[in-house]
Amino acid sequence: MMQGKSFCRDEHFENLLVFSQEAKFDLHGHTLVQDGHLVIQDKSTIISVEVARTFVNDLALQKEKVNILIPGADIKNVIGEGDDIIQTHVESGNITAYLSSIIHPDRRVFTFGVTPQSYERLESKMEQMSAHNVDLLEEHFLDAVPNDERFKKVKIIVINVPCSKSGIVNPVDFILQEGVSASIKDLAQGTLDNSKIRGLAFQHLGILKHAMKFPYLQGIIYMTRSIHEYENYDVVKKALEETREESAKQGSFEVIQALPNVANRLKQVVRPSYDPSDEQAMYKVDGKYIRMEPSSFMNGGFVALLKKQKVVESAHDVLERAAKKGLMKPAKTKTPRAQSGKTKRLEHAHKPRPTPSLPMAKLSITEKPAVVISDSELDTDVKNPPRKSSTKTKSWHGSDENVSEVKEKGIKAKKSNERKFKF
């Protein structure tokens, strides 16, 4: 425990200084604070911005890997262009200026909820903190169009909803540190009933679901200063369930571990969302959320990091997307041709023949078979032509002689030939 007007470096974050109770009241009038070199904030607020810093660093590592694996590749065609950030509610501007410091000066921070009365004050504060890449928008976040040309480079949305602030330990310190316009009664713990808390949770759900509609988004950081489950776990769980079907084509969101490198070291001051006695809320067991309990060291709150998952595209979708970007020619669709007469005939030829319905009649031979004669018989016919006039009936081969007479002549000729050539 520090005594006197002393301070030390925080054990978890290098850019955070911890001051003693006696010294912190003298800081508000210090020149370092007035000039914007030091910003008085609670550690619970720092944790949410550090989650954003880690996510920005992960995006930078992805770009380096793409340059190594695909030399000369256009980064914007692979993982998108820019690293802009949207903050849904500007509040005092402290978180806005902090977000401005974690990204490149060429990137932008769009913050919503600026009123005409607070515009000049916030503009002066951004100038004092050298946050020159901040756009103060006098419109509500729910009125923002996701496909707006201004937000095509936005990769992260920080949702710091105006919650019940039930995790605030000391309302006076909170008003002095954050510079918010709130009454002590509104910040006192236990002053809101369940109906009002549920009403706030319904508003948070609408804001979170609207943030998921931004097409080029990579991550969402949802933070509250509340300790009620209605505003924390239930909102995230409900949003993921209701947008699962709608975000199937663009990519669904999934809760991932926030601050993985320092999560174990934060256990003494924060508690992961794990309650073994709560059997009905099993989605808390994974410990991916960060739940901060109110203590003398810091205010209570809740932080969740939602990362957009990659869509598994089919080969047809990949080719179609490449054709739209001009990387290849669009595929030609073949139109069916009309069938020609030849094709129809061929198709008809392959059809099976119809089977007869009636049985075929059996064929029977009623006439006697024709008599076959030899070559010698034909020679005899040539030597002895038929007579001119004959009353005999012609044989089956047109001769006037009977078959028996022809046979007798053939036998006699054969015997005479045998006698002539006898040795």
From TrEMBL:
Biased composition (Basic residues): 326-335, 342-353, 385-395
Chain ranges of the SAM-dependent MTase RsmB/NOP-type domain: 1-309
Signal peptide per UniProt: none
Residue span of region Disordered: 326-360, 372-423
Biased composition (Basic and acidic residues): 397-423
Single Gene Ontology BP annotation: methylation
Keywords associated with the record: Methyltransferase, RNA-binding, S-adenosyl-L-methionine, Transferase
GO MF terms held by the record: methyltransferase activity; RNA binding
Family stated for the protein in its record: Belongs to the class I-like SAM-binding methyltransferase superfamily. RsmB/NOP family.
Protein name: Methyltransferase NSUN7
Native source organism of the sequence: Actinia tenebrosa
Gene: LOC116308269
